[in-house]
Write a structure and sequence with these properties.
Blueprint lengths: L11 E8 L3 H14 L3 E5 L2 E6 L2 E8 L2 E8 L2 H18 L10 E2 L10 E13 L2 E7 L12 E6 L11 E2 L5 E2 L8 E11 L4 E7 L6 H8 L5 E8 L8 E6 L4 H10 L5 E8 L13 E8 L10 H8 L9 E8 H14 L7 E7 L16
Parallel strand pairs: 15-16, 15-18, 16-17, 18-19
Antiparallel strand pairs: 1-5, 1-6, 2-3, 3-4, 4-5, 7-8, 7-14, 8-13, 9-12, 9-14, 10-11, 12-13
């Protein structure tokens, strides 16, 4: 019996031409950067293509310009790829910021496809310095199938009617005026209830310092916040896991532990201020959970996590592994160096991330940080 061929899944595509001097050298620099961040690079005629977890971007050199193409499986992925391509173009171009417009799918959107205005449903303390905010909204299905993170758009404190960024013709956000501009912070979806249309987000409270902590400290049911996501990669399949972090990474470590199959093995190491900040966790995997206590030392000032990582006995070389760390910048550099330069772990198995940097405001970028 002859069967009908399966219907091909539609891909969403867009392109843009940008005037750039020395386009070959420009493309070379951009894709060297993509390769350093573990994108899969494929040479094409007079250019390169890079595959990311949400789609592909390619750039081809033409006389005095670059032809950029992006492709994804849906509008949300396409919007992400447009933004990624535009951001890196502006970062690496020499001289004035070029102006360009995308053509193809996703043109003329008045709102980013993965943006939602959400409302505070509940506020609860998990530990003395961890507050859980439950947000309610619509169309949250992607949070069950995509990455664990989201971006929160925190409106100005004295602005009762928040304004949100909208997509520009180059794919990047067009922001409201400064006094109405929300501030953006990245957090983890701690849990999701599709039936109720809610997500839980855990916030580390460190006084009135930092945009996210201040908002969580004062949040009340009925408050409105902007949310864009999900972002980040999904948890890869492995046989052995090493999960490392301080309070800022505790939500993603907890969610990962709860999602692992019973057959998974490994170690989780979490640093908190003291025993009162430990959280009960239920999971089926054979993971050794180790709590580290600073006992009065300030976050980001000890070597507890770095020392604990170096003491972990790694599994045999043929084991499928996944190791991740969400830590302060100094610990991030030390852990990444140990995993990559001393243990020579495969880059695709290693995800060290600097979630914050001591002495800098939450979310503040440092132009001298080449390793971020």
């Amino acid at each position: 019996m002859q069967t009908e061929p399966a219907e091909a899944k539609r891909s969403f595509q867009a392109q843009a031409e940008v005037a750039i001097a020395d386009p070959e050298r420009f493309i070379e620099r951009v894709f060297e950067h993509f390769a350093e961040h573990d994108a899969e690079i494929t040479p094409i005629e007079r250019g390169s293509s890079a595959a990311f977890f949400l789609g592909e971007v390619s750039m081809q050199a033409r006389p005095n310009n670059v032809l950029m193409r992006v492709k994804a499986d849906d509008e949300t992925g396409l919007a992400f790829m447009k933004s990624l391509a535009a951001h890196h173009l502006i970062e690496f171009v020499q001289g004035e910021r070029p102006r360009f417009a995308w053509t193809g799918d996703g043109v003329g959107l008045s709102q980013f496809p993965n943006f939602r205005e959400m409302t505070v449903e509940r506020v609860a303390h998990v530990t003395p310095h961890m507050r859980r905010i439950t947000l309610s909204g619509s169309d949250l299905g992607r949070y069950a199938t995509h990455g664990p993170h989201l971006m929160l758009f925190v409106p100005p404190e004295d602005n009762a009617m928040p304004e949100w960024p909208v997509p520009g013709e180059d794919g990047l956000p067009v922001w409201p005026t400064n006094d109405r501009r929300p501030q953006v912070r990245t957090y983890t979806v701690r849990s999701l209830d599709l039936g109720a249309g809610t997500i839980d987000v855990d916030f580390v409270l460190h006084g009135d310092h930092g945009v996210g902590s201040r908002w969580a400290l004062n949040a009340r049911p009925g408050d409105v916040i902007g949310v864009r996501g999900p972002t980040g990669r999904r948890r890869p399949e492995a046989d052995w896991y090493l999960l490392v972090g301080d309070e800022t990474a505790l939500p993603v470590i907890a969610r990962t532990l709860e999602s692992l199959p019973a057959s998974a093995k490994g170690v989780a190491i979490i640093e908190v201020s003291d025993e009162s900040e430990q959280q009960p966790m239920r999971y089926d995997a054979d993971i050794q959970l180790r709590w580290l206590h600073r006992n009065g030392a300030e976050a980001g000032t000890t070597s507890l996590l770095v020392d604990a990582v170096r003491a972990v006995k790694m599994p045999p070389a043929e084991t499928r592994i996944h190791v991740m760390a969400g830590v302060e910048y100094t610990a991030f550099k030390a852990i990444r160096r140990y995993w990559r330069d001393e243990l020579h772990l495969n880059k695709k198995d290693v995800v060290p991330v600097a979630y914050w940097r001591r002495g800098r405001a939450e979310g503040e970028a440092d132009p001298d940080d080449e390793e971020n």
